Description:
This protein is an alpha+beta fold.
Amino acid sequence: MENVEKKWYVVNTYSGHENKVKINLERRIESMNMQDYIFRVIVAEHPVPVLKDGMPTDKIKMKNTYPGYLFVEMYMTDEAWYVVRNTPGVTGFIGSSGRGAKPFPVPKEQIESVLKGIGVVEEGMYSDYKVGDVVKILRGPLMGSEGIIQEVDVTKSIVRVSSVFFGRETSVEVDFADVDKVNK
């Protein structure tokens, strides 16, 4: 496949039907032998505690971060585009003007943020994070605060971040999936 790269695309579905459409698409990929063209189909869900009378229970439910959307990793060939577009429940691609125009892929930084939000960390993501970069902490006790990377440990998937906590500079270890780079 010359001049075609594996990229991520955003597919529009009916809100609340994302998992059903994902299953439909995965079945079509299998039945139409498209495994070499369409690789991953993701619903960006994350666990949230179930509350009862305002208090958390032992139950967890999955919440969709992007209702009405699926993320599909694929080669954008005519055949693969046809398979995805014509899957029951798919209403279109984001980034396509319609009238037969193929969609634009999701930029690398944006898909990395989506993948990390669901706990998927890939080898190539680390290369964009270096000592001295400013990051925002996405989860945990320092959620929402910003800090400066002091160290990136790829083997443990941990980032050591210097952040201000209660008015004091504090060095904390944060899971790599729980930080996002701040572009300044």
